[in-house]
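Sharing a chain and its predicted structure for anyone who wants a worked example. Both blocks are below, sequence first, tokens second.
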Amino acid sequence: MRAGSIAAIAALLIILAGAVAFAYLGLTVPGEPMPTQGWIALTLGVVVSLIVGIGLMALVFYSSRRGYDEAAQFRSDDRRD
């Protein structure tokens, strides 16, 4: 492996360790429970994210099946001089 690959893997492992530590501390430190408004906001955020994701994937499949994703082709009779 090259030095760049090793550095990238090390950086990603450090980020992963930080995320795991943050999650562990966030789940084990006692505190107030989330208020009702927080649960409503969380639910709405998840639902809207799912709608956007599903809608965009549907558009990708629709445009692919209808041929909108075909490469542009140059024809000599379309030329403007």
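Comments welcome. The helical segments are 3-28, 36-66.
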